[in-house]
Amino acid sequence: MTRSNLPAWEQADPSVHASDPRAITFAEDFGIRPIPAVGPIDTTAICATPSNGFEQLWKAIEPETRTRANDIHLPIVVAYAERLCDAYPLADRELVLVAAILHDTGWAHVDESRIISEGFSGNWRKAAIRFEHETEGCTVARRVLPSLGYTVDFVEHVCDIIDGHDTRQVAYSLEDALVRDCDRLWRFDRAGITASSSWFGMPVSDYVDRLHREILPELITEAAHQMATADLNRAKALLRTDAIR
Ligand SMILES: [Fe+2]
Ligand SMILES: [Fe+2]
């Protein structure tokens, strides 16, 4: 059951950036949406498959994990990223995972008092603080990756994904799409529902209704759709959202 009278978040506008040559190429290469998976899709609860590796990178960004629940958000997002890479083996796995690990580190370098007040209210998709955390995230990537042996080209590919991951409405590559999807998938897990409903100041039942109505349709890949649907059904049953509303 979903409530039809909830206020809606401002809709993503896919026409913004759609004329970028990278968006056009990606749309031509992956015309069927959601993008069908070619590998296995794991729809079990995400805690069954934690992510692996990248210990040095995790160590390097430890200070950045202390802001905005990044020490919960980032590992869960990366666990979803691994599943999406299994479902889309054509994607550059290293690029997806490194971009996913780093994508929100910029939150640690913006005015913390504005994260909730601007980033989770009104037109949060276009809040200045969201652009700032993307720019700062690129700065973190350029600071930590070279000393871990990553090439300049690789670092810039990572930054291409971090830059706009929240504020740009279209994906520019398969890797970009997978990072965007795993970042949204965390919202469907229990931990994401707990944190995000609190950040948005919303009852859990309203929040899960809006996930179903507004965020599920934004997912780009079929694998993410299936994972999100399974997570949402589990969370709604567990949290008794049909009764507690
Ligand atoms: Fe973000
Ligand atoms: Fe994120």
From TrEMBL:
Residue ranges occupied by any HD domain in the UniProt entry: 73-185
Database matches in InterPro entries: HD/PDEase_dom, HD_domain, HDIG_dom
Name the record gives this protein: HD domain-containing protein
Organism of origin: Corynebacterium glutamicum (strain ATCC 13032 / DSM 20300 / JCM 1318 / BCRC 11384 / CCUG 27702 / LMG 3730 / NBRC 12168 / NCIMB 10025 / NRRL B-2784 / 534)
